[in-house]
Amino acid sequence: MGEFRQLESELSDINHLHKGILRLGIPPMVGMLMAEPIGLFRQRYPGVELKIAEFGGLTVQQAVSDGELDLAMTALPVDEESGLATLPLFNHPLCVLAPRTAQWEAVSSLSPQALAAHPLVIYNEDFALSQQLMQLFTDHDVKPRIAVRSGQWDFLAAMVQAGIGVAILPQPICERLDARHFCTIPLQSKLHWELGMIWREGVYLSHSAQAWLECSKKFWLNA
């Protein structure tokens, strides 16, 4: 039955690239980086409707595995046993976001061990980056003092500005915040925010999904 449905999908998809639906998963942290590639895709394929689901990276990974989404962007790497194919697109260093005070202005970089002395505002557990950060703390024998968890980077930034704690965020997000209110301090770690597209390996990928991958390569990899 599964093979029949896949063949049916392939036949119905032929020559229908200019119409259809693409189900795309995007973690909330990535949303602000997606406007331009989505615009590029819409210019090329105006008849394809994009249905975007915003969840944490681990949730979108499961949704792709379950066939609820065609593709998703998530933090890499994914579990080797997940059955997901990946297309790495970009990576950025992580930074510590702190309120702009004389104390933080004097800090040039921070180690994971140094963060143990400060309350931390961090992403929810269903974010892949959150799990990677918790593993980083474990590797350095650090027990973080978590004050707040949230799925929204702008809420975490507001908590930092209010003095509730510091956050660890990807550099592009920190750069979008008002430098008059925040200090962006490099994190001493090889851990980077690496993102890419994922889809089910060995399962038919619609022409719309293939077109999205090509647009992603064009936008981020100049391929």
UniProtKB/TrEMBL annotation:
Specify the LysR substrate-binding domain's residue ranges.
Answer: 18-217
**Cross-referenced Pfam families, in alphabetical order?**
LysR_substrate (PF03466)
Query: Per its UniProt record, what InterPro entries does this chain match?
Result: HTH-type_LysR_regulators (IPR050950), LysR_subst-bd (IPR005119)
Q: Name one GO cellular component term.
A: cytosol
One of this protein's GO BP terms? regulation of DNA-templated transcription
At the top level of its lineage, which domain of life is listed?
Answer: Bacteria
Protein name in the entry: HTH-type transcriptional activator CmpR
Organism (species): Raoultella terrigena (Klebsiella terrigena)
**Gene responsible for this protein:** cmpR_4
